[in-house]
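Lecture notes, unit on protein representations.

Consider one protein chain, 287 amino acids long.
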Amino acid sequence: MKYSVFTVMLPEWTPEEAAPRLAAAGYEGVEWRVNLPPTKAIDSVPSAGRYWSANRCTIDVNSLPGAAASVREMTERAGLKLCALGTYTDASDYAEVRKVMEASAIMGCPMLRIGPPRFGDGDDYNALFSKAVEDFGKVEAAAKEFGVKATIEVHMNTITSSPSLAHRLASHFDPRYVGVILDAGNMVFEGYENYSLALQLLGPYLAHVHVKNYSWRKVGEKDGTAVWTAEPDTMWGGSADYRRLLGLLKGIGYSGYLSFEDFNEALPTTEKLTRNIEYMRRLEASL
């Protein structure tokens, strides 16, 4: 297996600081976070919120595609492969889709995350799905033009919260240009399906794998009923079964990256980087 890090989990570091540290820790690849730059200082937000509201390890989306060549040079200088871009671009924003795809092509990056519609109680799933098929049709055409692949993440609170829902959307398109990011950690939160079933269903649409973990914890009681919440956990302490998933990925000949996206607060960032890859390689060796 090949390992990378989605830099959303490195909020304290700049990209220039992160790249050589990832290489030194034994990672082969990096998945750069692409979004607006942080507007808050990292010490001004709650620790668990720093990944999103104060994340320094972010490529400024407004700097692209102009800064793409320098991002590529920085990545290659560290000896890393740029395996994916973790953008926050929605499929409905066609102008930005084209911008980040052009940047991805310049960087030599094969794939980038493009967001499906979010979903919550009261939303009309069927209407959102129809619109997503229309939007991703344009995304597919742009991906073909730029020679990259758009990826749809299995993610809670979206219309693709399970592998089968992600496949339902992706299957309208050519898997050379539209694929799926499998995320077993997100599937703890919402959308769990048998891993073997998920991999068989996704087939050629499986493009990338995110790795993190969650656990459900009882946090109180309301009107005599237990209240539970899913919280980030360590790779070895959460509910997702990575020994099983690794074995299944090995069985299908998966040759892509496993990209860490670890939000647990039990360990500092540097220790997460070293212990996570050691843990996963130990699991691999046991298979």
